[in-house]
């Protein structure tokens, strides 16, 4: 099931979309107003999140880092 949330100012340029979900991970895609995409791959078991930035128009893709999403959520609850 795909869920999408877009910018109220211009829904066609920015947004967040749920990508494919597997038994072990979520895939969330953020689209910037510049057309760049940031893919978040979240491990359901431990919250480790791998981020990959891509610019489809330029054919560029690179690893952007890792964070533990569960650590962040625990600190902000």
Radius of gyration: 13 Å
Can you tell me the residue ranges where pLDDT is under 50 for at least 5 consecutive residues? Answer: 1-8
Global shape: elongated
DSSP strand content: over 45%
Strand line-up in the sheet with most strands: 1-2-3-4-5-6
Q: Count every helix, treating DSSP H or I runs of 4 or more residues as helices.
A: 1
Instruction: Please trace the helix and strand order, writing H or E for each element.
Output: EEEEEEH
N-to-C span: 27 Å
Helix content: under 10%
Oligomer category: single chain
The total count of strands amounts to 6
Look at the structure and give the mean pLDDT.
85
Give the biggest beta sheet.
6 strands, antiparallel
Which structural category do the helix and sheet elements fall into? mainly beta
Tell me what you see in this structure.
With 77 residues, this protein is mainly beta. Helices cover 9% and strands 49% of the residues. It contains 1 helix and 6 strands; from the N terminus they run ββββββα. The protein has one helix at residues 69-75, and strands spanning 4-6, 15-18, 25-31, 37-43, 48-55, 60-68. The protein has a 6-stranded antiparallel beta sheet with strand order 1-2-3-4-5-6. A hairpin with a 6-residue loop joins strand 2 (15-18) and strand 3 (25-31).
């Amino acid at each position: 099931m795909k869920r999408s949330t877009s910018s109220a100012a211009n829904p066609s340029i920015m947004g967040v979309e749920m990508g494919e979900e597997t038994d072990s991970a979520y895939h969330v895609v953020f689209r910037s107003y510049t057309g760049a995409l940031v893919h978040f791959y979240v491990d359901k078991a431990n919250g480790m999140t791998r981020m990959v930035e891509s610019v489809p128009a330029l054919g560029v893709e690179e690893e952007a880092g890792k964070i533990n999403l569960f650590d962040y959520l625990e600190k902000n609850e």
